[in-house]
Amino acid sequence: METSRNRLSTALQNSIQCKRRLLDDVVQLAAFDRAVQLVIETFFGGGRVFIAGNGGSCADAQHLAAEFVCKLSTPRAPLAAEALTADGATLTAISNDFHFDEIFARQLQCKASPGDVFIALSTSGNSPNVVRALEQCQRSSVPSILFSGRGGGRARPLADVAIIVPGNDSCQIQELHIVLYHTLVACVESALFESQPCLAATAGRDVREPSAL
Length: 213
Fold this sequence. Notes:
Layout: H1 4-23, H2 26-44, E1 49-52, H3 56-69, E2 81-83, H4 88-97, H5 105-111, E3 117-122, H6 128-140, E4 144-148, E5 161-164, H7 170-193
Parallel strand pairs: 1-2, 1-3, 3-4, 4-5
Helix pairs in contact: 1-7, 2-7, 3-7, 5-6
């Protein structure tokens, strides 16, 4: 029988291997750069970030939104972000009156505009409500970012930027997503509120508070 210590050792080794694979994946690192720049430009233009996912990714959506609105590490002005998973009345009404697949798309239809950005979280990329949300973004010309694994599934071709992490295990995928979320917020905070921007693409630009503040 496998001991708890051996199980933990295996989990840590697998997590490290996935992180190393991502570190060496220049395609996904470039996609992450594009995602960061898109979020920075959204906030600079006074736009909002909408985030959604299911299960563990539902919790991650709220986690990420909270860090934008509150802070990651340094006190600063709030950034407009909303998790589309947080309103139980809206979620259950849409599920009951229409279909569970519509819970994110319908919210985006009335809330999001082309100056905003939608961040979709799906370990498989095949969650029907996430796919429908990305389709709604295409219809409304709302830029979208996908964080996924397992090749990105049906959601991958629908997103403007797709970051697909290595691994097929949901635990490992979500662990990598947490690293990406935290780094995303750190880069945004650096670009908007510090004297040294996180991305080379923002070099030479006046760093100021976003127009929405």
